[in-house]
Amino acid sequence: MAENVYELSADRVLEPPSTFKGKLRHLGPGFILSASIVGSGELIATTNFGAEAGFVCLWIIIFSCLVKVALQLEFGKHAIYSGKTTIGAFNDLPGPKFGKASWSIWAWLLAMSLKFLQVGGIIGLVAVVMNTLIPIGPEGGKVGVIFWTVAAGLSVAFLISRGRYALIERCCLIMIGLFTIFTVISVIALQWTDYSITASQIGSGLSFEMPSKLILFSAIAAFGITGVGGDEIMAYNYWLIEKGYASYTGPRPPESDQKAHDAWLARARGWIRIMTLDALFSLFCYTLVTILFYILGAAVLHVLHGKLKDGQELLGALSLMYTESLGPSAKWIFMVGAVAVLYSTLLAALGAWTRLFADAFSHIGVGDFQDPKRRQKAIAIGSFVITAIWAILYFIFEKPKLMILVGGFITAVILLLVLFAAFVMRLHWSPAQLKPSRLYDLALCLSALAIAFGGIWSISMGLRKFFEKPAEKTAFHGSAALPQAHQVPVRPDQQLPIHHHR
């Protein structure tokens, strides 16, 4: 019988490596987060925001990536010293319980009901790309998209239902690495085109100019979905536990046993340092890709479109980021890369969601997440149920960009719940002997202010949209909403960008 990684045992205690090479061998959970982030956040939300805003809002994207990592670290620390999952921690938060579960679990379930739209958009995009590469049916039409949606859903469900942590980590690392390299090359190649990036454009993006009201929804969605989001922070604990960080630290002995407690503290500090290194590596990875995608959107798509169309034309527009710098043949490389990065997002998201939902239902009273057999059964069933919901939602809406942006909007709201939990962990649950530095606390407070602002703003905008009367549509044409200094001349042959879908 396989060992239960969610149960702490003194038999699995392992001293943290002291060498840098040894620490690198234990990295990995952060790369699964990067895979989950890059697919929808960077490829869609970030490029859409860059297309609408131009360079002027680059600072928002950078800030969004940097400001949330403190919450990720706090959740990771809690997993290491307590061995508890995120949902287990949520159930211990102060406040009323409804049935067996805390109010926070019910609130999370309510918010996640709308998050299904986001990944539904992603699975639809995978199908559209695959149908472009390998058309099914007459002229690669709707029949082909339906076929590839079902194929993508079944394949990722099978992998998650059968695969363990190591398979998910390996797949995500390979796919994200390849697409990141290709994106770096595309941005560099852009300098030899009419879309070359200047220092003044980058400078305008770091001038802390606020977005206009016309693109406020995109700005908040981008803030919620770029960098490590609320759902990724919640998923991080599961990957840390399955990687072994909590098991290696071991159960916390009573303080009366001074020798054993001191040894436990030393192990906890060591594995927290490795977790921090893991988080910083992933921070570098997804921040780099986010900036690159935003620059491509601002440099190319802002000039050609101003605002990306939705549906099947979306990928044709996105491919211009590569064809305009690497030539027409790069469209097909982009399509293959898009499949890799979007599929890795499906893989990481489904792996996380099956664990989170199985754990949440266990606390409600359905199933037992702590029992290895019942947990694996719940994950296997959840794999197929969740992907079926994603596919059905895509068939209903068929607007992947809108679906993904709505998910990013809701993620900004989920971050409020994550923020509350992080401060309870820091102020009430964290052992005094593991007290962090003042710099860490300052970063946590900065994260709190930014996330509270973004989350409350998201809620207020949502309520305003719900109650306001329908208004006349406001025209928004390309870079017209921006100062002339941010506009780039358009060549005559670029006036009518092509959106082919075969």
- Write down the secondary-structure element order: HHHHHEEHHHHHHHHHHHHH
In the predicted model, the low-confidence regions spanning at least 5 consecutive residues are: 471-502
Task: Give me the CATH architecture, please.
Answer: Up-down Bundle
Q: Helix count?
A: 18
| Rg (C-alpha, Å) | 23 Å
Q: What is the level 1 CATH name?
A: Mainly Alpha
Structural class comes to mainly alpha
The biggest beta sheet, please?
2 strands, antiparallel
Counting structural domains, the number is 1
Helix content: over 70%
Task: Break the fold down into its secondary structure elements and pairings.
Blueprint: H1 20-24, H2 29-53, H3 58-67, H4 69-82, H5 86-91, E1 97-98, E2 101-102, H6 103-133, H7 142-162, H8 165-189, H9 199-205, H10 216-225, H11 230-243, H12 245-249, H13 258-304, H14 313-326, H15 330-364, H16 372-397, H17 400-429, H18 438-467
Antiparallel strand pairs: 1-2
Helix pairs in contact: 2-8, 2-10, 2-11, 2-13, 2-15, 2-17, 3-10, 3-13, 4-11, 4-13, 4-17, 6-7, 6-15, 6-16, 6-17, 7-15, 7-16, 8-13, 8-14, 8-15, 10-17, 10-18, 11-15, 11-17, 13-14, 14-15, 15-16, 17-18
